[in-house]
Amino acid sequence: MSSSGERKVSASLGRSVRGTTPRLADLASTPEAPRTPTLGRSVSSLFGSPGGSFRTEDEYVVIELGSRYVRGGFPGESTPRCTLSYDPDNQRRVGDYRQWDPEYGQKRRKPKRGQDWGQEFELYRMDLSQVDLGVVEDKFERIMREVYNTYFVLDTKPRRILLALPPKMPHALMSTLLDVLFGGFLAPSITLMSSPVLSTVAAGLRSALVVDIGWAETLVTAVCEYREVHEQRTVRAGKLLSEEMAKVLNAALDEHAGYQEFDDISFKEAEEVLSRVGWCKSKPRSNRRTLYFPARTSPILEEFEDAVETPEPTVTIPLSKVSPPSEIAIPFATLAKPADNALFATETALNEFDDHELPLHHLIYRALLSLPMDVRRLCMSRIIITGGVAALPGLKSRILAELEALVHTKGWDPVRNYGTASARHDHILRQQKEAVELRRQEGDDKISESLDPDNPLPAGLRGHEEDTIDAKLAHVALRNGPPPASVVGGIVRGVETLGAWAGASLVAQQRIRGIVEIDRERYLQHGLQGASKEKEVSVVPQRQSMGPGVARGAGERASWTLGVWA
Amino acid sequence: MAQPFPYTYYACDCYDGNNTSSTKRASQLLQEAEEEERTFDPRSPRANYSLYPLEHLLYCEDCQQVRCPRCIIEETLNWYCPSCLFEVPSSVVKSDGNRCTRSCFSCPLCTSNLQTYSLDQTGESAPPFILECQYCRWSSLEIGIEFEKGQGIAAQLARLGNGGKHIPTNKERDKERERRREVEMRKSRDLLSPSTESTNTDTERDDRPPSHDDLFSNLTAFYKSQVDTQTPSNPFSSHDINFSSPSAYSRIMNLYSTTGSKKNKRSKPSAMREAASSLEGLTIHDPISDAAAIERIKREGWGVTLSPAQKHAQINPNVRFTDEIRPLATLLCTKRSKRCRSCRQILTKPESKITSTRYKIKLLALNHIPRLSIRALNASPPTPVASRTAETFDYNALKPGIPAHFLLHLSNPLFDSIKVTLATPSTTPGKVHSRVTILCPQFDVGANTDIWDDALSSSLSPIKRGSVSEGPAQIEAGKIWDRGRNWTSVAVEIVPGFTNSQGSGSEEQELEEDEDVLEIPIFVRIEYETDAGADDRGLGDSRGSKGEKERREEAFWTVVGVGRIKGA
Prior knowledge:
CATH superfamily of the domain at 60-86 and 122-203 and 499-565 in chain A: ATPase, nucleotide binding domain
CATH architecture of the domain at 60-86 and 122-203 and 499-565 in chain A: 2-Layer Sandwich
Oligomer: heterodimer
Number of helices of chain B: 16
Strand order of the largest sheet of chain B: 2-1-23-22-17-19
Structural class of chain A: alpha/beta
Shape of chain B: elongated
Helix content of chain A: 25-40%
Number of strands of chain B: 23
Largest interface: A-B, 114 and 97 residues
Number of helices of chain A: 20
Distance between the termini of chain A: 49 Å
CATH topology of the domain at 60-86 and 122-203 and 499-565 in chain A: Nucleotidyltransferase, domain 5
């Protein structure tokens, strides 16, 4: 064979290559050898029998990445195999076993100089000016190694990765994370999906308003037909909440005997208290005065809730790291205050907030307000509250109640203040509402009125005429179309989700391919720069591409994009 | 750090080598260039990830480099349960997950092992059985679970919910879902055509909210049905041809069917819809469960809640109270072989037998890299045990400002004698500046010959151990302190810095954890001549240069932890 000499040069280093018989692939590279014209293998697999190459790399692992936790598991499972946090105890040198020292558990570690509350417990933050990406890489590499070696325990076959990421991430950070996954864990390809969309999937919906109360910020994303259409953020989230909880605990310690100065509560203790006994009042109280209630529906519930219980219930919290170890009793109502202060900021007037620190309910209201009307109709009745803080008991009910109250008072009027005309506007609003009330309440009487032939009711006040054709059409739609329960809109309603990880697991199980799919080879060549600038790449193969274009193959795309991350 | 003083860490330099260029910008590249000349800083946040004790490092003979856990690839050889030492075949791992499927469980509260006990009073092992923790006395009775058999606990537990309820299997779930859908269909038909009698006999509906698993399986079924109704309309959607499903067959048959006009007639596919009921996985937020949780915390307090660590260890981490936890099946362990990341050579390979701790292949850095250690040079010669307690040097209380002498001890595992050059910054990096002087930075270390050579040769030509035996130590710059068969030690003078530098506010100056630890970065460079082709097979042979000597050199950073400086 003419090419054999040439091949030997390249193969001389490895002894094992020499003995192997030439393969078909080798033949193709030698122009002299007789051969059939090259056909993309995928073409034959498209029309012919399924090729062996078709299903080889189809297995996925599903990883959800947040700034505090990483979750990893396999598609089709309802819960992740592991949920790991970035704990400074895991970030020590190898061979440093001090965390197992019984004495060490008693001591309280001071946060490092110049570090924010809980910064050691984060993987990254969005403001990259404060982040050393090298450290991020090291941390992520180590935790992923634990995920793979302890929890995945896979064989050597490389698996694709479905990575659930928050939408919007600095590219430098993204490429750091992708470097680790491609480099350290040999993933053949990584599919990125944004976590709000996955939360929507895990709730069984197509459109939703996803309120992700995360660590550093709360992200409100309007998802319409699986696309992010709008987004708002606030810093009122987990970090602020745990700082507030630490304040409450420090104040309680202050009263407690034996307290020394500068012996503040540590991050871990505050986190534990928050996750164990923290709660949130589920009824809005503070802004009741300003609420407008129609006379007949004025709430009686709240007065009932205000009644003070005697004796005041308290919760005893053991603090083992205080010296001497002691227990403090904190009134149960006090434990709800951090949520009030951090997330709803009930004490502060609305005009004092900056744009980045709006209270949650106002943020959600504004997000809804800025949506087009029909999207708003869908989203307002599909509010998904998720994220780490969402597990706080009472929080979801509270957010929904606050939002309902806001909608009730303000309607969907983007004008916040009418200035001198406000009195008139109020008047009009009140009139409208009362008219609506009146009509609803007295609907029964109208029929008898309209029957009176002498003075017919104005057309606007009359009920609709029943059309038999319309009724029949509605009937057919009901039978063939989607069930009516799935097209609910226009009311404030909360929907539970199983979380972004479960959504990712569902997506991977159904073998749905994402918009953003990054191929290993291409990434290693060009990095993130290799992505095409178009935001949308059609996933559905085009009809026209049945011609020469199909040679690229069904499994491959001509270009890849970063989608929402671009 | 937390290792007892003194200790030595070796830096693997892979951490700055594996950066792909995509993340680097020009400024970073500049920084990299500077880094070449910079000394290693053991206090930089990245140092924690590149420093390893020598025992943790492997050595690739082909690349002639140290390999740390970051620059190796691991391959799982076999799986086993660390508790019952039962080897689990890979197919079972794939189907049943990463936990022991027999009777090994750990306590959900304290993570120690659970044991199976019989509750039978007669003393024989008869049902019912429970799991109990040996350490904290938690038992499965607390979550209302008893077992009928003493074996195969995992299989029994999979069917038992907390409180003795029955957990449906996937098949049962599917069946139940079908049944309920039927009921609902009938109902809606009744709604649509009111003429028929509403024959609602289905009253045995349980009202408790569906569990996480129920919801997930409902959602899965829902999406599956939705995707299935979508796909036939698009026969060319080649991206997910699944030849095992009947829908794919119908699609393929469609391709070959001659009635092409049929395809055109098909109406536009309706969009995938949303889930409409809890049967399809939709859950409307219900404030009642929230209120119940609050009420429970108010009533029962701290004791019934779970700590974050306990929650995350659970299979389903969305639990809150102690009666929701489940015993944890033991995580499987693996035996893994390790390969060099760059050349794929196997570095370690354990024997496949589970109970064996031996290795087939084991290339340790211990056998290729000189071991560096430090100890205090006591003015008095080492004496028998009796007086040792009084004389021992307290590494945890170095006196600031007072020069102290230490011995750097370098032992050579190679079979060739090596030339060593040590380098260290004159003041240690970090907040506390200590001055360090290595009195003899260049020296030779003998080869690691047979141990008996030492015994024989020392009698023939006594090596100068003089300095110790001659009484008062004479430390001279440029001279080694002592030497043996394959080791050499040199003296180091260290002036520990002051932990509280004078002036400025006390709050700013307060030391953090471990800032008072005296750690010295030392750059070690070794040079030696060895038989070329002795350990890289193949390459050298062809040139026929057997017996020819080859110069090799190696260089790496180490960090020596000397002790803790006592606060003034």
